[in-house]
Design brief:
Layout: E1 2-6, E2 12-15, H1 39-44, H2 74-77, H3 82-103
Amino acid sequence: MELGTPDASGRRRPVSIKGSEFIMDVDMVIVGIDRTPNPILQSTTEGVQTTKGGTIFADENGKTNIEGVYASGDIVTGEANVISTMGAVKRVAKAMHEYLIRKK
C-alpha cells in the first residue's frame, strides 16, 4: 500500500500497489488486526482462557494459560491507545523471543 493523493478533506487514503503481492513460507503468523476482540480467535484456540468481555487472559509478558501461546494489545486489554499497545507488543515480542530461544 501507499498513500494516494489528498481528497477534498485533505486526507491521503491508502492505495494498493499493483504487483506488490508475494507469497512467503512461514512457520508462524502473528495476527495484528482490529480494535476489539475477534470471537473467531477464541473459538479456534481451544482452551484459551478469556474474560466475560471476550478478551484473552495473559500475564504482563503476554503468556496465556496455553504453553507457547502469547497475546498482546487490544485482545488482552480491550481497546487502548496505540502508544500503550505498541509498548505492550514490544514487551510481549521480547518474551516470545526468549521463549523460542529456550525451546531450541
